[in-house]
Amino acid sequence: MTISLPNLEDLLSLARLEVSNGKLPSYIPLLSQVNPQSLAIAISDLDQELLTAGDIHLTFPLMSAVKPFLFLYLLEVLGEERVFERVDRQASLLPFNTIPDTKPANPMLNCGAIALASLLDSSQSLQDWLNQRSGANLSIDQHMLISVRSVNNRRNLAIAYQLQKLGIINNPEQALATYEEICCLSCNVIDLAKIGTLLIRAEVPNVNKVLEVMTACGMYETSIAFAQEIGLSSKSSVSGALLSIVPNQIAIACYSPALDSVGNSVAGMFLLKQIKDYL
Predict the structure, then answer these.
(1) What is the CATH number of the domain that holds 40?
(2) Which domain range does residue 176 map to?
(3) How many CB atoms neighbour CB 34 within 10 A?
């Protein structure tokens, strides 16, 4: 790996001090039961040479971290016209679970991702594509999927029905089921770094489009402030996953399940801020 980076074990020791500033999410039962002290990082370069530290074998669901890859996959297999019929690519300060009044602003909002999930034949197609392209070993965590579907206030179902009402999707139940399945694709930080390498090569068709949307929209309502401070195309997740891309250089995958009030991993954000100074 050509980039000079700090000692990752030392960084993780500092990051663990930040964990107490976050909380586990409460609205998905299984996510509220994980160990808040879990912490891992994996950094992969273009050749998938890896640097790792922490609880690298712990698995977690991708949740919203799958959204850039859903976007990338559909751009490749269906093309821009089909994709942008369903979703725009505009920055938004709205919460990630906003019920839309018009076409979803971007693919990083739940409404945008559900609209795009309606274009999948099945969750298996995205799963297979990611594994084959990256060498990762993603699989659906069926226990997590049951936990997601056990939530009484299924706001995403309301979003799906609103998308149907707006004429954007035809089958809200199927779109939501597929979306929930891809969100429950399970991996460890090494797998996340591997699929992240699909976004490193900025010259590859569609990658720049995905990175632009990640930069503007990938960190929920704090995306613009994060882009100004850190400047890395990133996507966070309610599971505590956090993926950042340094184009043509490295993919940085972090996992720490304690979140800030917006839904971003507290320790993951800390790690990125420290690493950024070495780039």
Answers:
(1) 3.40.710.10
(2) 8-276
(3) 17
Instruction: Determine the Cα–Cα distance for residues 7 and 221; give it in Å rounded to an integer.
Output: 31
> From CA 241, how far away is CA 263, in angstroms rounded?
10
2 and 51 Cβ atoms separated by less than 8 Å? no
Q: How far apart are CA 99 and CA 162, in angstroms?
A: 7
The Cα–Cα gap between 253 and 232 comes to 12
- Rounded Cα gap, residues 191 and 140, in angstroms: 13
Residue 270 within a domain: yes
**Whole-number Å distance between alpha carbons of 60 and 33:** 12
d(CA 193, CA 251): 6
- Residue 1 in any domain: the answer is no
150: left (phi over 0), alpha (psi -120 to 50) or beta: alpha
| Helices 123-134, 189-196: inter-axial angle, 10-degree rounding | 80
Q: Look at the chain and report how many structural domains it folds into.
A: 1
Task: Please check whether residue 247 is in contact with residue 202, taking contact to mean a CB–CB distance below 8 angstroms.
Answer: yes
pLDDT digits (tens, 9 = 90+) for 178-221: 999 999 999 999 999 999 999 999 888 899 999 999 999 999 88
* pTM of this prediction exceeds 0.90: yes
Contact 174, 182 (CB under 8 A): no
